[in-house]
Amino acid sequence: PSAPSSQIRRKSRAVVENTHFRHFSLENQAEEELQSKQFPKKVDEIMRSVRTTIVLGVVLMAASLSSGFVVKTSPSAQATSSSTTTTTARLMSISSSSSNWQDSCKTVLATAALSMLLAFGSPDAALADGQTKDFKLPPIDRNDKGRCTFSSSSMGQANAARDKLYDLRECKLSGKDASGFDLSGVIMSKTDVSKSKFVESYFSKGYMHDSNFDGADFTNAIVDRASFSGSSLKGTVFTNAVLTGTSFDGADVEDADFTEAYIGDFDIRNLCKNPTLKGENPTTGADTRLSVGCGLK
Questions:
Q1: Which of 18, 84, 129, 196 could be cross-linked to 118 through a Cys-Cys bond (beta carbons 3.0 to 4.6 Å apart)?
Q2: Which sequence ranges are marked TM in the entry (predicted)?
Q3: DSSP codes of every residue in 206-254
């Protein structure tokens, strides 16, 4: 009787252990299935948040570009931005309809990369206002007898807003004092403002080509996104001026003083290549190349 009893006990114990093992396996399997269902949902929620953030960033970037808040870009950069925006929109559409969270993740990463390309990927440098090729200006209104005067804008300098075109082309304003004036949006071509004072003045988005600025004083001025292309700036003083996004391509800057002026790294490299960047300012005695930070040749 004892032998059968021990066999029964062993069989019972085996059945119980097997039952526990199967129960444990079923619990693990159920838990894994639950996690496998919940994990993609959590990932999808994260991906949706990431997509929303990217969309907002692209929209804000596009809005700033279209409003003129940032500097202009070259035509090839604009074409790159347009095609990248289209591709980004397509990828995000695919990502939204994807049922596989891994594919969704890959798509979002690609979308983020393209968004970064839209913002930073173009190799073309930003252009100062007035540096666009084939820049066309309206004819000079020679019937406006009060045109050749310095007038300060009361509408805010950030976007060079005025109630009419501020045209100083071919005006003779040598030796005048426009210190503290907001001259944003000014158009100068063959204009003589030599020895004029522009201390603490604003020149946002100024088009100042082929003009005479010899001996002018721009101390503490803000010259933002302006262009001095082809102009003469011999002996001009830019001490402590802000020269952000400003172009001196083709300008004569001999004997100019840029001491303590704020100039972007890219603009400094371009300015240092200017062959006329030499001499010594007759008013301040500053070495022209050293005042920019180029070093001696």
A1: 84
A2: none
A3: -EEES-B-TT-B-TT-B--S-B-TT-B-TT-B-TT-EETT-B-TT-B-T
Topology annotation, domain 131-297: Pectate Lyase C-like (2.160.20)
Q: Which residues contact 157 (CB under 8 A, 6 or more apart)?
A: 182, 184, 202, 204, 222
76: closest CA among 122, 118, 132? 122
Compute the distance between CA of residue 122 and CA of residue 145 in angstroms, rounded to an integer.
Answer: 45
Within its chain, how far is the Cα of 79 from the centroid? 16
Residue 278, amino acid: K
**pTM recorded for the entire structure:** 0.57
| Of 234, 228, 235, nearest in space to 211 by CA | 228
Q: Sorting pLDDT into bands at 50, 70 and 90, what band is 149?
A: very high
Q: How far apart are CA 183 and CA 205, in angstroms?
A: 9
